[in-house]
Amino acid sequence: MRNLLIFITKYNAFFLFLIFEVSSLLIYIKYNSFQKATFINSTNKVTGTLYGQVSRLYSYMSLNEVNDSLARENANLRGQLKSAQYVDSVEKRKVVDTLYKQQYTYIVAKVINNSTNRRNNYITIDRGSKDGIAKDMGVICGSGVVGIVADVSEHLAIIQSVLHKNTRLSAMLVDNKEIGSFVWGADLDPTKGLLIDIQNNAQPKLGERVVTSGYSLFPTGIPFGKITNLHAKGGGLLLNVEVALAVDFSKLQYVYVVNNKFAQEQSGLEAVQNKNE
Fold first, then answer.
1. Are 140 and 256 in contact, with CB atoms under 8 Å apart?
2. With the C-alpha atoms ordered 189, 190, 196, 198, is the resulting torsion angle positive or negative?
3. 152 half-sphere exposure, CB direction, 13 A CA radius
4. Which of 78, 117, 219, 254 could form a Cys-Cys staple with 71, CB 3.0–4.6 A?
5. CA–CA distance, 68 with 62 (Å, rounded to integer)
C-alpha cells in the first residue's frame, strides 16, 4: 500500500492529465451530436468485432465435441442403410420393408495413433471391449475400407490397416461383380492397392470402382478405390488390377468398427465344414 501511494505521488501530474483528458473527451462527445454518433458507431463496431472473435474461439474449442457428435450420427445412419440389413423371408418375389432385419451395426471410434510408412501398418483407436469391439471386426471410415481389428483391450483397440502385407480382403468390380482379393502392393505406396486374380474376360475398365463383395467382414459396396492400371499374369488369363485407394490414411480421424451379427455363426459353421473335409 505504501509503495502504491509513493507511486501515485510521484506520477500525480500524469494521472491528473489523464483524468482531465478523459473528462474533456467525455464532455466533448456528450454535448456534440455528430461526435457522439461517431463514437457510438465506432464502439459498436469494436464490440461486434470482439464478440465475433470470442464466438469463433468458442466454436474452435468445441470442434472436438461437434466432430464426435457428427461421427456418432454417421454411425447411426450407416446402421439404417439397406446394406446393413438382411431379408428375413423365403419369399423372393415380394419383399417389403418389414422383412428387413439388422445385420450390421457400427461403433464410432477416434484414431489416436496411426502409421502409413511401414511394411506392416497399424492404427490405434480409443474404443475397446467395453464398447463392444472384438478381434476380427471390420473397420471402415467415411471414404472406404480401413482394415481389421487385430487386438483389443478394455479401452483401446489395434487395427491391422489395409496398408499391411498380411491384409487380404474379398473385393469385387462394381460393374460385373467379378470377385477377387484385395491386397496392399509391394511398393509401400500408401495411396495404392491391388485387386488380384481377376478373370481377364471380366474386362475391368480404368476408373471402375472396386468395393467390398459382402463375402467377408463388411457390407457389400464399401469402396476400396478406383482402377488405375491393369497387369496380366501368367498366360494372360488372370489380371492384377492396380487401385487408387479411396481412403487417405494419413488423414484418418474417425473410423467405424463394423459389428456383423452373423460373423461368429458363419465362421463357426465354416470351421466345422473345413474340419470335415
1. yes
2. negative
3. 15
4. 254
5. 10
> Is residue 228 within 8 Å of residue 243, measured between CB atoms?
yes
Nearest to 180 by CA among 133, 227, 139, 137: 227
How far is it, in rounded angstroms, from Cα 244 to Cα 238? Answer: 20
**Eight-state DSSP code of residue 73:** H
Cell 445412419 belongs to residue: 77
Instruction: Enumerate the H helices of 62-172 as residue ranges.
Output: 63-80
pTM of the model: 0.64
The pLDDT tens digits for 54-75 are: 656 655 555 666 566 566 666 6
Cα four-point dihedral sign 13, 15, 21, 27: negative
Domains parsed from the chain with CATH numbers: 2-61 (no CATH), 64-262 (2.40.10.340)
C-alpha cell at 221: 459396396
- Do the Cβ atoms of 275 and 229 come closer than 8 Å? no
User: What does the pLDDT look like over 25-44, one tens digit per residue?
Assistant: 777 666 666 665 665 666 65
Taking the mean position of all CA atoms in its chain, how far away is CA 55? 26
When comparing pLDDT for 141 and 67, which is higher? Answer: 141
Cβ(217)–Cβ(258) below 8 Å:
yes
